[in-house]
Each structure stands twice: as C-alpha cells, then as structure tokens.
Amino acid sequence: MRRSEVRGRQVTFHVLSVELDSALRGAGLGLRRELIPALSAGKPEVISFYEVAPENWIDMGGAKAKAFRALTERTPLVCHGLSLSLGGPTPLDEVFLRKLKSFLKVHQSPLYTEHLSYCSDDGHLYDLMPIPFTAEAVTYVAKRIRQTQDILGQRIAVENASFYTGSPIDEMSELEFVNAVVTEADCWLHLDVNNVYVNSVNHRYDPRDFLRGIPADRVVYMHMAGHYRESDDLLVDTHGADVIDPVWDLLEFTYREIGVHPTLLERDFNIPPLADLVTEVARIASVQHRFQPANSHANAAIHS
Questions:
Q1: What confidence category does residue 23 fall into, taking pLDDT thresholds of 50, 70 and 90?
Q2: Which CATH number belongs to the domain containing residue 84 in this structure?
Q3: What is the pTM of this model?
C-alpha cells in the first residue's frame, strides 16, 4: 500500500472519530427490558446514552417496540452485538447484517460494536469463545470485520474479550493479537476495562502494562462491569455484580493514559433497582468529569 493511501485512511479514520465524538459522550446504561417502565417514567439526567444487543430488538413489535422507540428518540443508542461471531468458521450472517443496518438507521445509532470472539460453529454455541492468537486468525478476523463494515457502510468497534484458558497454538499475546486485528481491519476498539482486569488476574499480567500498549487513537468506547470471584486466581466475567474498587481504579488509570471516552455500565444479571444502577453510572460520570479537562487538548490533537 502506498504511503498516500495509508495517510488517506488515517484522515478518514480521524474524521469519523470526530463525528462519533459529537454524537456520543458521557456515561451510559445497558437498556434491559425490566428497566423500561422506570426509564419511561423519567430518565435520570446522568444517563447520557443506552446500549442494547440489537438481536434482542430487531424483530420486536407491538407495545414493547413502541416503548423502546420512545426511549431511543430522546437518548442516543449504542448497539453491542452478541451473535455475529467474527472469529467463527461459518460465513457471516449477511441477512442479519442487512437487518442491523436498517435498525441502526431507524434508531440513529452512532456506533455498533461486537466481541472479538466467536459464538457459532454450524449453529450458535450460546457463549463467547476465544479466538486463537495466531497470524492466520488476525488475517481471517480482520477480513470479516472489513466485510461487516462494507455491508453496514460504517466503521465498527471490536471489544477485547474475557477468556479463561490459552490456546496451545497461540503465536502472540492477547495485546499483540488485539492490536494486530484493529490495525489490519482498520476498525475501532471497544475497550472493556473489567475484561482487562479479569484477564490480568486469570492470566497473571499487569493490567496497566496492557493498557499502556493499547493504541489510544483506536479507542472510541468503554465498558465497566462487575464479575464473580471464583477464587483468588480465577475471576468470571458475569456482569452480575457491582463494580469493585480495583476496576474503578483501573478506569481512572485508563482515562489518564488513553483519554476519556463514552463509558457504559453493564449489568445483565441480578439487576438491582434503577436507583442503584444510577449510582454507578454517576460514579463513571464523576470520574470522567475529573479527567476530561486534562485530556481535552490531547483528544483534540488525536482527532485533528
């Protein structure tokens, strides 16, 4: 590839990143169906955006669809996919992607993200499985990401996934694999801070070193969540508990090292009352407020 072509792609990348920044900011909350009545009665001001798995809503109709649309008309919506299986062996589901494209347009969703994992093999596995960290996998996954972006007509972000055992055929580290995929695919990075913490405990590495190695100009979106401690050296990413203090500390480090980006609180199980969730969303917003002034000039330089 010629240098002029590389430079052109970089310029396009930064322009699109600026457009995303203008459409999405602040702290968000995963929109679970059981929360819709409370949110419809009055959205707390601290919630700047919602996130949903589009698979759960694309074919929804009736009163639930109307209630959902009423919320998305007033508040930005991020779509975080569960079933695309970017690392899977079967062809991409183009029927789903075309439905997704329409869904993103209807709800004016500024961002679609997916897991850097796979979840199908001639049928859905109903779990997010790790992709072997190999050069062949980088090429394969990056091609599928580019295909997804071509169909959707927009850049997507991929999320660093939690995993519990390494592959015997791994050729590189998790960090090297993530960086290689986002570079070759020319996509964005959805950085899950809790997943970094979980993996750092399970695989015994320094999460701060991992974050220092992330390409900051690729990060556009973040997740915070709770997890389950099976033992001192085994954490399970459940999204079913409050965020713990070490993960909050890691969020502060991430903002200081990478910059402040829209950040969502994930809570998928053991869902407490909305007021309890809002407390954690407000804590994200408070940390953002403390770090945003120090990063505003740096972010402007990144996106210029």
A1: confident
A2: 3.20.20.150
A3: 0.88
